[in-house]
Amino acid sequence: VAFNLDFRNDGGKYYWRNLYSDFSDQEFRSRNELKFDDGEATSGTSTSAQWTGSNIEKQMKDRLEEQSILSSVIGGENYFNRWTFDYSYAYSKSQESEPDRLDTTFELEGVDLGYTSTGPVPAVVLGDEAFDPENFIINELEYLDGKTEDTVNTVKLNALLDIFSDGYNGNIKFGALYRAREKTNDVTNIFYEDPAEPTLEPFATAGPRFGLSSFGPGLDATAIRSYFNANRDSFDISEDDTIVGSAANNFSMNEDVAAAYLMSTYENGPLRVVYGVRYEATDFESQGFRTVVTEDGTAAVPESFANDYDNVLPSLNLRYEFADNWLFRAAATQTIARPNFEDLRPGGEIEIDEGELEAEIGNPGLSPVESTNIDLGVEWYPGGVSMVSLGLFYKDLENFIVTADIAEIIDLEDLVGNLPVDDAEVIAPINGDSAELLGLEAAFVYQFESGLYLSGNGTFVDSEATYFERPDKTTLPRTPEVVLNGAIGFESTRFGLRLAANYRDQALIGFEDLTDPAFDVFQDEHLQVDFSARWNITRELQLSFAAINLTDEPFYAYFGQSRFNAQYE
């Protein structure tokens, strides 16, 4: 729902703009987890392996997700001689809730598991026990009622002075901004254990058609929900798991940003220069809980963090028309990107059992990504919508953010005190050291008089980055070396057709172990073909059609080598 008001007079214009959005999504997700390493490996080759005594978990996720967003902006713009002032106040609030979510797990212990091939879709072999619902026993029921709120208040003020003289033709502009953001997460997470331990039989349905293999019976979400509601009072509550689930996901974070800038635009014939400097001061605070599970019990430890930093960000942009329809562009800038709130969340889950430490934590001490950028480009406009461009760019990055196992590079005493640790896995976001990118980009559009057109663009990037505890440099995460796009189409006043292809080279997307490149996660190369069409039936009515991913290309990620599946969709 949108509601807007606008008013104008000779002295300026004023507006009030509002938007409310409400969204809900009901999800029933059936999941099979094959736990090979719970058993004993009995045989194996480079492409096959067999275990005995392994476990299988069947899980049903039954959740309703509700989201709402309210935004309201009021502001105006006024003119006084050569001065222009604009100002605004913006308020936004977004909410997300998961009322009465229920996750149910059934487990089968002591089953034979294996695979007879590797690659994107490994051939998985399950023992006969996996196909009998009587063999699966209810293991856990997880109830969750959670609500997240994100509120932002922003005030802006800008002033512009036009300058027209023999010595300077352009303007001077300056302004300030203040933004206050607060995000909270309030979760009640209760873990139940069923002393009656029913089998999967009363809740079984036909096996889901995953298209990959046969994994035995499926789960009936409606039957499980009815059983939970009827028997909830008789279930035992797992106190330790409930403490972990509730406390580890409760937090509040505040981020205040104050900014000011001064810039100017200068024009002289074919030359236009825009230059200036921006100052930003960031103040961040967070409160949450770190849950620690040891052999002696479970505790939720309050944790708070505060961090503030400031940045001076100069920029220079130049545009020069050196011939008819020919443009040269150049830019030198410094920019920042603040960490996502998801990465900044305080606390997390820590578990240590017989010297083995497992932890998944946030990192409220993350620094923003800082980048120094240089861009050069040439553009040619031969006529109509036709265009040819060529660009070169360089970026020098500091403090880029990755998520990885950081057990080898942190002091484990900060997590578990003086408890002995023989083996550790600590998953958390961290700042990398530094990275550099050098890239070339080219694009063209050409339209014939008949309405037929061709377009294409390509980006070619060479990147390298350094990480803690890794002597060799590697590529920057999520930065493919080659990205290509091409399209052929036809446009007229009545019809439009477009066939487009997109190619993306393989790219590093994550780390399992910062010290061992063999476990780096890569997204495989991807080629996607799409088609779209439109038909203007009348001046008021249009029919449109779109077909996406015509060749049904999958998403595929792998560990180190393409034969080691990490994710296939």
Unreliable segments of 5+ consecutive residues: none
Query: Which range best describes the helical content: under 10%, 10-25%, 25-40%, 40-55%, 55-70% or over 70%?
Result: under 10%
Radius of gyration: 29 Å
Ends distance: 35 Å
Number of strands: 32
Q: Helix segment count?
A: 4
Detailed description of the structure:
The longest helix has 11 residues. The mean pLDDT is about 95. Strand 14 and strand 15 form a beta hairpin. The strands form three sheets. The protein has a 26-stranded mixed beta sheet that branches. It contains four helices and 32 strands. It has about 575 residues and is mainly beta.
How would the blueprint of this fold be written?
Layout: E1 2-9, E2 12-35, E3 40-44, E4 49-80, E5 83-115, E6 124-126, E7 137-164, E8 169-193, E9 204-205, E10 218-219, H1 221-231, E11 236-237, H2 239-247, E12 251-268, E13 271-294, E14 297-323, E15 326-337, H3 341-344, E16 348-353, E17 356-361, E18 369-383, E19 386-398, E20 401-405, H4 413-416, E21 423-431, E22 434-447, E23 452-467, E24 470-474, E25 482-491, E26 495-504, E27 507-510, E28 521-523, E29 526-536, E30 542-547, E31 556-559, E32 565-568
Parallel strand pairs: 13-16, 17-21
Antiparallel strand pairs: 1-2, 2-4, 3-4, 4-5, 5-6, 5-7, 7-8, 8-11, 8-12, 9-10, 12-13, 13-14, 14-15, 15-18, 16-17, 18-19, 19-22, 20-21, 22-23, 23-24, 23-25, 25-26, 26-29, 27-28, 28-31, 29-30, 31-32
